[in-house]
Amino acid sequence: MAAWFRALLLGAFLFPALVESLVRHYKFSVVSKNFTKLCATKSIVTVDGQFPGPTLYAREDDTVIVRVTNHVTDNVTIHWHGVRQFLTGWSDGPAYITQCPIQPGQSYIYNFTLTGQRGTLLWHAHISWLRATIHGAIVILPKRGIPYPFPKPDKEKIIILAEWWKADVEAVINQATQSGLPPNVSDTHTVNGHPGPVPGCSSQGAGYTLHVESGKTYLLRIINAAVNDELFFKIAGHNLTIVEVDASYVKPFQIDTIFISPGQTTNALLTANQGTPTNPPTILTSVPAQNATPVTYSFIDSLRSLNSPQYPAKVPLTIDHSLFFTMGVGVNPCDTCVNGSKLVGDINNVSFVMPTIGLLQAYHYDISGVYTVDFPANPPIPFNYTGNSPSNLQTNNGTRLYMLSFNSTVQIVLQDTAVIAPENHPTHLHGFNFFVVGKGLGNFDKNKDPQKFNLVDPVERNTVAVPTGGWVVIRFKADNPGVWLLHCHLEVHTTWGLKMAFIVENGKGPNETLPPPPSDLPKC
Q: Signal sequence span per UniProt (predicted)?
């Protein structure tokens, strides 16, 4: 949404040649480093001293092994956002869900295979708000010899959108938690770590510049690594051809503005076809309003799975678990907070309470007293979800999970509520891709709305934006045993408890059973 997205975005990204290999090894060192932005210097937590962090390159079906060593005083984990983690749930990364955090001075090896996946994803910290500065791209190339299902670009570029606070981000959220009030918003957005022009701060430059050659076509791998902001992305005077979202191919279409939520990725072809005079002026683009619903829907409604013989859309047509999840915020008592109350997030009126050990450990070792399996399949008290707020804004607290048998099919209606205020909720499901079969504004109508579902070529994603004052419906097959988090990817809402988790039971035999944890699994 920032006006400084420009037609010429500094520094071409060098795309390394990849040799044929089945196993790719990486080492991530979590370290602190000083950065100066907005004419202010602060120390941030990074991987390898980089912001954004290093790009992880691999090919479809490769095994990736990443040793993460923690050299800072914060606990840390890394989540490989969108990686299916089939039978490798111990490497998914969310703190206290699939693992205890990596403590200062300790290491953990993440080991996973990119089974049947190709495209752009991201990795980021998954504890507190550390992902504000600990994040980077995952580029999964097709198998060697397999072409893209769209014209081959001349070059590829990575564009990572993020947020920047002048203050220490951990201090920002800690202050908000203690007060019970919303946290301070970020001071600016960044493109590949560069903020835009700042009045009175000429030393910071004029943002990020992408050097292009006239007539060349570029594949832009666009990632929203922002903490709390959904963003529009456009380039002045150019259309973009969208070819993939969330590492799933789509039917190509042209558009001038992309809508992208935190945790989502979009691959777009850009042809530099406008010509560039010597010493060209910067051409600014018109910026959509923050509530530009038509612009948003123009993009979202154009997304369709490729659904080709090579890349079919395997949409579940029969449903074993039909779930209805309301998503919103509430107000709970808090004796130590400023107003004697605090804002909370909830799904079906349950605010998630983080355990003190990993849920996957507790499930695998049958440790009692850590969680219950009584998460409600429907709202406990139905109401006019997008109408006036109910008189009681309080929620229930609990570590309540929902059990799924192996290979069962699941449909979830994700319904926003107007409790306090309606909001958009970019919702991420760990361990699976899902198909977005329907969406709409207002309250979901179980009798009428299913008639409009797209069960032929719906877009396949791992993160979906539940519209403000509206709903989306997703479907997936629970074919990956483990404990898998479902949560709003606005970090403020996740912190408030707007999340839940599924337990997917083992199937039959070793190919349907989660192996035991690795020997170096961190301890709490």
A: 1-21
